[in-house]
């Protein structure tokens, strides 16, 4: 049994090149958009897709290492109830 390979014409090659360029442009746009997000609060940090530490209160860590504490979770103050 002999394998035969299909010959690619110019249209096939051009289509493949255009698809690769579009895919590369989409990936680059997504990465640039993620890097250029300005984060100034806990909510911004979470919306940007940064990791959230499962502590109390929860803490979101930005790409530059800046930490944002969830303002809706308050650590208890004063003596703990017995």
Compact description:
The chain is of the alpha+beta class.
Describe this structure in words.
This protein has helices at 10-35, 42-47; strands at 52-53, 59-61, 67-69. The protein folds into two domains: 8-37; 39-73, no CATH class. 5% of the residues are buried. The mean pLDDT is 83. By secondary structure, the protein is of the alpha+beta class. β2 (59-61) and β3 (67-69) form a beta hairpin. It has two helices and three strands.
Write the layout of secondary structure elements.
Blueprint: H1 10-35, H2 42-47, E1 52-53, E2 59-61, E3 67-69
Antiparallel strand pairs: 1-2, 2-3
Regions with pLDDT < 50 over 5+ consecutive residues? none
Oligomer: single chain
Helix content: 25-40%
Q: What's the number of helices?
A: 2
- Helix-strand pattern, N to C? HHEEE
The rounded distance between the terminal residues' Cα atoms is: 83 Å
**Main β-sheet: number of strands, strand sense, barrel status?**
3 strands, antiparallel
- The helix-and-strand class reads alpha+beta
Roughly what fraction of the amino acids lie in strands? 5-15%
Mean residue pLDDT = 83
- The tally of structural domains comes to 2
Radius of gyration: 25 Å
The 3D shape can be described as: elongated
Total strand count, please?
3
Strand order of the largest sheet: 1-2-3
């Amino acid at each position: 049994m002999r394998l035969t390979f299909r010959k690619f014409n110019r249209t096939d090659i051009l289509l493949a090149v255009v698809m690769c360029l579009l895919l590369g442009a989409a990936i680059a746009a997504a990465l640039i958009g993620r890097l250029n997000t300005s984060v100034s609060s806990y909510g911004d940090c979470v919306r940007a897709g940064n990791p959230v530490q499962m502590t109390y209160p929860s803490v979101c860590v930005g790409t530059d290492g800046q930490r944002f504490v969830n303002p809706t979770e308050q650590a208890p103050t004063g003596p703990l109830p017995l």
